[in-house]
Amino acid sequence: MSHASVRALASSLALAALATALGCGAAAPKATIPPLRTSHENVPTPRERQAAACSAALAAEQGGLVAAADEADEHRIVRAVEIRDGAGHLVEEALVHELPVKAGEAYDAARGREAVRRIWATGRYADVAIDSRTEADGVAILFRVTPRSTIERLFVVDASDEDARSLHAREGGAYEPAALYSSARAIEGSYRDRGYLDAKLQIGSARIGEGRVDVCVAAHLGPLVVISSIDFAGTTHEAELRGLITSEDGKNAPGGILDRDLLDRDALLMSARLYDLGYVAHKLAYRTERRGAELRVIFDVEENGVYRLGKIDVQGDLGAPKAAYQKLLTSRRGDVFNRTAFAAEIEAIRALERDAGRKDVDVDPVTNLDAATHVIDITIELHDPHKRAPATAASPPAAAGKLQIADLALGHGQQARPGNKVSVHYKGMLADGTVFDSSIARGTPFVFVLGGKSVIPGFEQGVLGMRVGGKRRVTIPPELGYGDRGAPPTIPPKATLVFELELLSAGPP
Amino acid sequence: MRKRAVLLVLSLVLGAASAHARTLDRIAAVAGDHVILLGEVQARARPYITLAARQEKDPLALARLTTKALRETCERLIDEALIDDEANRRHLTVGEDEVDKAIATVATQNNFTLDQLYAEARNQGYDPATYRTEIEHVLLEYKLVQLRGATGDQAKVDAARKEMLAELRARVYVEDRLAP
Predict the structure, then answer these.
(1) What is the average per-residue pLDDT within A268-274?
(2) Which entry of A151, A437, A448, A491 is annotated as an active-site residue?
(3) Which residues between 181 and 220 in chain A have a beta carbon less than 8 angstroms from any beta carbon of chain B?
(4) What is the mean pLDDT of residues A303-322?
């Protein structure tokens, strides 16, 4: 029997669990579990003992695998705890007292491992092992440490002096590979930001004597990758959209390097412009095609027709006669829909509410698009939270700072990615089950751009990765919700929130 | 005189035994800020080694399987450490209820009660805590893979998983001290 099959057999339990827990139990492979054996069969046979001994010998020969603590070491009384270096000298005598392994207590393997981690965390040692020495009435526990090697010579090839200084390595200093790699990765990132998309820093080390190493860091920058062209497909407003591309220091222009952060922002501006031209159902996204050291940027646009205004109505908890609201709506039936203009009208209604002492009233525009006639009907809904039961107690901080996601149903459609415009139905609840908001109750899905930071972080992270048709329950800790202040009077301070989400659509903004 | 010589030999043997230090545990791998100990690798590899021991009768072949199991488990623990870091970065967690549900489903699929499933898991060398940990990491890993747009199609999931793990390993220093 091969090890692969052993592993497959044992892990089939986990795989089946995975598939079923995520709602695809029907497709999950059925776990194959071998027949149960009676207890006496679990006693090692002489052959098994022989195999174990053989395994240990082979392991030792093949790479220093050692026999770890056997069961007998557990619970033996520790008579002494020491940290010694390779030469047998006592070191770190102050640290010994902080270790979780204590003289006079029973030895516990988990505490032993914790002690190793404490010693490792000092950063002074390249290796830490636990040895035990049998004493008359217990064991002495020895933490055997190997000091880090010293860098004898440091060679930095094809990197700038500044980069060399940024490396976590210097001649005469300790060789700390983890820190060195981390600093190298940071330098690679800075090169990529400067257009060297293939930048790589290779690190090598060679032991040249007891406790001494030579280290070599070689930078391979690769070509400077520049933009060959920025093209648009599918739009009748190319010149206008192209004019919205910002070029700072020659970036995001032919001959310059690509700055994705900048281009992402420009794509949002382009999308906003299309909204203002009535292209309410447009799609816009960019992609890149690389050929050698050249990068072509292509904006794919689907305009999907100009939408004109149909019915406009104001409903809900009105604090003034309807005519007062309609007076603020300057858009008229038949006008080309302009999002900026419409947003200004919504803001005017909010100002009216504030001036009337109703500052907590939510003003939510609900749109209904008719793709056949390209008409957009709008209902402006006013919700007065004071007309709903206020939340009472703060929720317990159950989530402990982390978002919890439970998939109730996996969707099969488009997946929600950063930058997508997504449409979701949601029900928002406090931890005690009090519903404080529901798009379902309103009958209108909530639409926002993922990554646009327009919603609380937990909500955004909860939607990320869902597929259209999928349902999730997301538990959001206060840190990722409304924080210490809450959102009175609906959300108490330090509230843990629970959202049930259903992803209805996802696509380019 | 003979008795004295025997006592001397005995005392030498006992003295040697009491001075003998043996290694209980050591660092098996480093993954970024994480340290993985050999004892942890052995505990997690126990189910595989137990099964192999039952089915492989040739001691040498079994020894090789054991070594391979330890090395592969060590690699898996490195992946899990990196997955934990990535999940923390993205505020992703797996709740106890999700693990409970997954385990309950496995039990149902195999016509076991929960007690029977845990008994079988123990028989395979798992302790319940280790079994839960393994399930939790599988679920966490799958959630991260989902974020990369791979769901449903097993080939896509496998490819996305492989790509993700390679990227996570490329970000930090990884040293597998059990590697040949």
Answers:
(1) 90
(2) A437
(3) 181-182, 185
(4) 91
Q: Nearest to residue B172, comparing CAs of B89, B88, B83, B82? A: B82
Residue B77 CB contacts under 8 Å (≥ 6 apart), including other chains: B28, B29, B36, B40, B41, B44
For A481, the domain range is 404-507
B48 contact residues in A (CB cutoff 8 A): 3, 6-7, 10
Does the annotation mark A482 as catalytic?
A: yes
Q: Quick check: A155 pLDDT over 80?
A: yes
Q: What is the CATH number of the domain that holds A283?
A: 3.10.20.310
Cα angle: A183, vertex A211, B20; to 5 degrees: 120
Bin B9: left if φ > 0, else alpha if -120 < ψ < 50, else beta.
alpha
Sort out which chain A residues have CB atoms less than 8 A from B40's CB and list them.
113
Q: Given an 8 Å threshold on Cβ–Cβ distance, is A131 in contact with B22?
A: yes
Q: Which two tokens stand for residue B96?
A: 């106890």
* Per-residue model confidence (pLDDT) at position B39: 93
A4 touches chain B (CB under 8 A): no
Distance between CA A506 and CA A20 in Å, rounded? Answer: 25
Instruction: Flag whether residue A38 sits within 8 Å of chain B, measured between CB atoms.
Output: no
ipTM of the prediction: 0.82
Place A53 in a pLDDT band, splitting at 50, 70 and 90: low
Express each pLDDT in B7-42 by its tens digit: 333 333 333 334 567 889 999 999 998 999 999 999
Contact predicate A508/A285, CB 8 Å: yes
B37 to chain A: which residues are within 8 Å by CB? 113, 116
Q: Which of A426, A446, A448, A459 is catalytic?
A: A426
Instruction: Please give the residue of chain B at the shortest CA–CA distance from A479.
Output: B91
Annotated catalytic, A426?
yes
Give the pLDDT confidence score for residue A237 in this predicted structure: 96
User: Same domain for A143 and A156?
Assistant: no
Mark whether A196 is an active-site residue. Answer: no
Question: Predicted confidence band at A29 (pLDDT cuts at 50, 70, 90)?
Answer: very low
Q: What pLDDT digit, counting tens, does each position of A438-458 carry?
A: 777 665 677 777 876 667 888
How close A193 gets to chain B, by Cα (Å)?
Answer: 16
Q: What domains does chain B contain, in order, with CATH numbers?
A: 23-174 (1.10.4030.10)
Name the H helices within A356-449.
439-442
Residues of chain A neighbouring B151 (CB-CB closer than 8 A): 410, 415, 467
Please count the structural domains in chain A: 5
Spatial separation of the C-alpha atoms in residues A391 and A406, rounded to whole Å:
25
* pLDDT at residue A210, as a whole number: 87
Last residue of a domain, one of A254, A280, A302: A302
Kindly give the pairing relationship between strand A226-233 and strand A294-302: parallel
Q: Are residues A170 and A239 in the same domain?
A: no
A167 lies in the same domain as A260? no
pLDDT band, very low/low/confident/very high, at A1 (cuts 50, 70, 90)? very low
Total count of residues recorded for chain A: 509
* Residue A299 annotated to the active site: no
Rounded mean pLDDT of chain A? 80
